[in-house]
Amino acid sequence: MIEIMLNGERNSLPKPLTIQELIEQNGLDPRKIAVEVNREVVPKARHREHQLQAGDAVEIVTLVGGGSGQCDPRSTALLPPVDKPLKVGKFAFASRLITGTGKYATHQLMRDCLTASACEVTTVAVRRERLIDKDGKSILDFLDLKKLTILPNTAGCFNAEDAIRHARIARELLTNLGNAGADWVKLECLADAKTLLPDPVATLQATETLVKEGFQVLVYTSDDPIMAKRLKAAGATSVMPAGSPIGSGQGVLNPNNIRIILEYLKEGDPDYPVIIDAGVGTASDVTIAMELGCDGVLLNTGIASAQDPLRMAYAMKYACDAGRFAYLGGRIPKKLYATATSPMEGRMAAAK
Q: Which of 84, 150, 237, 320 is most deeply buried (CB count within 10 A of its CB)?
């Protein structure tokens, strides 16, 4: 009988063994291990001939993943977990990305980008120059009204009266088309042409009127949490704070205010939809908005004015999905110091 050190523990062998015999005795798969004897690696080809001697220090190691090693049975699924739909008023959608139709070089490019983004809702401004192009073609000829719900937009309105008028005529137009979007409106009441920031007084006035007239109002507002509360109290179906000024591409400038808006509007009403509207410049901006816990993102310029709009449309789709999954998955807490990902147990003996 001889005694060896096996993985740091004394081990008695009934007789001298080769490495191969030791591996077989312990029921190990030689393809999935490596062996070191007295701090020297012994290649697999020599396991059959290498005889162990009394006092040998043998290390048999394998590969391990970082983490606890516990297996979540859900991890075997090939498809991502099913998410609940985005609910906005009476509507429900699988996609949480809403895209606009303006600023595209051609209607054909717009159509292709909407398809690439996988959006189910698209916004259309109720103005002749947005509905008819220079060739006399209607933007509606390029929208699949069987798949897309049209969200009419009061873009370009600088007072409550004009916004209400645009909402009413949009409802008439979409009713004639038989599109479900006739029942809702994306409300914009702008304060000035330079910043395109919302006029809070006019926005609140228009919201109150349109709600009374039976509209489901998705209202564009600033990132002011108090104003957001007032708009929800006025009956807004969804409050849509700007990440940054329209078309600026600056992303979410004030994430703390967005967090406060989410806290205020979802208190006692966790499914109330808060959708970031405006300022998105690239895919990471969408991901940040979704990771904050927003229910969706509405964008236009970020795709239409990109160097390659079609590629950017795909990017925005994946970014929205990634941000949503990251939010639901729950990020790890930030720490000052490191935490090892690989287990500390089972390490080979350290050099003295």
A: 320
Q: Alpha-carbon distance 168 to 179, whole Å?
A: 15
Structure tokens at 91: 């509507």
Q: Would the CA dihedral through 318, 322, 325, 328 be positive or negative?
A: negative
Q: What is the pLDDT of residues 114-160, one digit of tens each?
A: 999 999 999 988 754 445 556 667 777 888 888 899 999 998 899 99
Neighbours of 214 (CB within 10 A): 8
Is residue 87 annotated as a catalytic residue, yes or no? no
The residue from 186, 194, 232, 317 that is catalytic is: 186
The residue whose two tokens read 């009403």 is 269
- Count, in order, helices (H) and strands (E) of the chain: 10, 15
pLDDT in tens, 81-115: 888 999 999 999 999 999 999 889 998 999 999 99
Model pTM? 0.80
Exposure class string for 133-156: b at 16+ Cβ within 10 A, else e: eeeeeebbebbeeeebbbbbbbbb
Domains detected in the chain? 2-61 (3.10.20.30), 86-329 (3.20.20.70)
